Amino acid sequence: MGVLNVTPDSFSDGGAYPDLHAALDRGRQMVEQGAAIVDVGGESTRPGSSGVDAAEEKRRVLPVIEALAAELPVPISIDTRKPEVMREAIAAGASMVNDVGALRESGALEAIARSSVAVCLMHMQGEPATMQQQPVYDDVVLEVREFLEARVAACRGLGIAADRLVIDPGFGFGKTLAHNLQLLDRLSSLRCADLPLLVGLSRKGMIGTLTGRPTSERLAGSLALATLAVERGASIIRAHDVAETVDAVRVAAAVCGGWQVGVTA
Ligand code: 9MG
């Protein structure tokens, strides 16, 4: 899953795609480099960020989604928590919703239930503005797993088929370095009902903490974590550096069972 942020303030590539043409070029390039999904986001959820209103978010994402969905041969995902943005992005051609709030906003579950799109349910403790101030868990793996199971049950209860669901532990979303490391180490125990597991580790703060490097220099750390995630059962890797990540994932998946990424001899 290639990341296409159309925000002025995202933590690693904010402001890089200020106009429609630049965003489209980047979307095309990611698909040429092997992205199987393009994830378009118009509201930053980095730690400390405050949100934008729905009108501004739609202004940023809808033209990009419409153009990419018309042209690209891969699913376009909308990264949003707002039901109104979900609905209009789906009408514009998005075939997946990536919700870091796991459809907890009022009306979000219903928006997905009335559609036929896939949805990624991500765990987050707290809200982006304050989530990294003091994350607390008794047992992070157990609590994330129980949360994801409950959100899957809520979706199933509204008739959303299991084959539309993807789960994600939400690395860096209300988690300390120790929480993130534990979650990654025990990633395989988060699997529930055989649903695909998505992980986003690309350029994240945990790599900065471990290496001392700024976001622009976190490629090696990102590839190391992507490889470990594949080895532990992740089937979708959300990444900024698509070409390099696709190579790393292909190689890792060939060792772990080539069926995961359709590797052929
Ligand atoms: C939008 N976004 C930022 N980080 C993410 C992650 O780790 N997972 C998902 N699903 N979305 C993310």
Protein traits:
12% strand, two-stranded parallel ribbon, disordered C terminus, binds 9-methylguanine, alpha/beta, 42% helix, 8 strands, 9 helices, 265 residues
Bound molecules: 9-methylguanine
Biggest pleated-sheet summary: 6 strands, parallel
Number of helical elements: 9
The radius of gyration computed from the alpha-carbon positions, rounded to a whole number of angstroms, is: 17 Å
Q: Would you tell me the structural class of the helices and strands?
A: alpha/beta
Instruction: Please provide the count of β strands.
Output: 8
> What portion of residues belong to β-strands?
5-15%
Span between N and C termini? 23 Å
Order of helices and strands: EHEHEHEHEHEHEHHEH
Strands of the widest sheet, in order across it, are 1-2-3-4-5-6
Averaged pLDDT, please? 93
How helical, in percent, are the residues?
Answer: 40-55%
Low-confidence stretches: 259-265
Task: Report the principal-axis shape.
Answer: globular
